[in-house]
Amino acid sequence: MATSTKPTATDSTLAVISHPLDPLTAEEIAEASSILKAQRQLGSRVRFETVVLKEPAKVDVVDFSQGAPIRREAFVVVLDNDDGATYEALVSLDEKRVVSWQHVPGVQPRVMFDEFLECEAAVRADPRFQAAIKKRGISDPSLVMVDPWSAGNYGYEDEAGRRLVLCRNFARSSPTDNGYARPIEGVTAVVDLNSMEVVRVDDYGFVPLPPEAGNYSAEFVSQFRQDLKPLEITQPDGPSFQVDGWSVAWQKWRLRIGFTPREGLVIHTVGYEDKGRVRPILYRAALSDMVVPYGDPSKDHYRKNAFDAGEYGIGSLTNSLTLGCDCLGEIYYFDAVLNNGKGEPFVIPNAVCMHEEDYGILWKHTDWRIGQTEVRRSRRLVVSSVATVGNYEYGFFWYFYQDGTIQMEVKLTGIINTAAVPEGETPKYGTLVAPQLNAHIHQHFFNFRLDMSVDGGNNTVFEVNTVAEPPGPDNPHGNAFYAEKTPLRSEWEAQRVIDPMKGRYWLVSNTSAMNTLGQPVSYKLMPGENILPFAHPDASIIKRAGFMTKHLWVTPYDRNEISATGPYPNQHAGGAGLPEYTKNDRNVENTDVVLWYTLGYHHVPRPEDWPISPVGYCGFTLKPVGFFDTNPVLDVPPSEHHGGACHH
Ligand code: CO
After folding, report:
1. Residue 600 alpha carbon to ligand 1 centre in Å
2. Is pLDDT of 195 > 60?
3. pTM of the predicted model, to two decimals?
């Protein structure tokens, strides 16, 4: 049976601040906005892009003791639609005043959800747009889905300084029809989001609507398979974790949950209890940004790419999850409290799902000489959220395993982006997924910022490659190979790509903390399936998403360096974020290091991805290496089974 444990509105967990990293409450968001509106005389033409906790300095968090006073500050970004100017503010909630206020010239805040809706209405109402769709046999603009895509930056003079989106459009045949089955090919409306005017409607020529519907919702399925019997997860004594506000304890793990409109789920202050003390591993982990570059060079499709965190605020697009559907078993939900364009708070109930999962065998051995078997079951703690960005869904799943392993898995699903092609045409830069329906080849690049803290602040990153010993006196039989460790001492040295044939991984070591074997305590970052971009080095998207060109980046900790694409990637000309942070080749040896891992998911669409894609998976793993003195899970007790315990 699926059950949920959840704080109520009167529960102290949501209303009272008990830790410096607690996200802003609804009351704090409202107060920060109203302080700013009053003290800066902001009018109705100002949109609030971000109202978020200004996270305190790391030292204040690490040294915090329960019950000590907590300073609360809000970081706010506003956009003035009248002159297109962007401002950043810091608001003290304790002193009820604006601490700082500054104009940030030449940037565009991300596209806000309110703008999505207003933009769709503006395009539907535009006579030029109505004429263009009428030519294609579409008479009812209210059934047209208008997807505003960030315009990027291609150096076009008439676009400079304007807050633009490119609207690609799809025709539903009824209100619940899947519109992505019928792309209105060739028609792109360009909208200025500051004035909410349709600047122009580009028409690249007529291509018929694809002939077939692409519906997947239950109402359209005529026959469900009949052979599924109930599968229930029960935990009669409840889950093994404890939650206090945003703080989680699960067996030996300690961590905190956070949430921001841009990054979504944030994991803070991860530690593992060992010999009576909680040893720090990871100070902060979150998606820093992501981008989806498409590979079709035609019409406006060459401009198709989307930075779903930096340009759209993937956290603000997070789903409210449903028990028994998204999440199965004994679930604890965290609500996310975010801001809308007016600076008012809004709540995403059940934004973060947390539960335990059985994960098969933890370890096993049968001593066949004496007939003794020992086996233990593995369990993992799952902390996850799912966001819908236009046509696509992204699930972000953090797994914590009993043996100290941390895993991030991205789940990709939703509807692939589509274009129409004339009858009989076989697309080169895509896959025909239904008659006359082309799904363009594309890639999904995610960058995760991992602020490591392996047994404290002084960490060094090593690259480990396995090397075949050349034949010679040391290797007379040709069988020899060994793992070779090389320190990555500076930011440039630490810009690396994967090499699966060398078994390459990256080790984060604390060289001043040794295990009982005299080895530096370490965690390794293990890549999974990964890839590099195919766009040419001179392409706009490579400049704007330079982070894609390396799988590993390492920087010394700086609380202001939070995104791989910089603070304002929307319409940015390029170079911001990691390329800029690392331009001085700072030292990253024996210091507080931040790892930035780029994860590429290559998507050559398949007919099976239509009309909705079964989940695709990608991710990476952090694993202890000499962090413990020995196998840390010998103390996991044998499970009970019907005949006794799992050791006999
Ligand atoms: Co895809």
Report:
1. 11
2. yes
3. 0.96
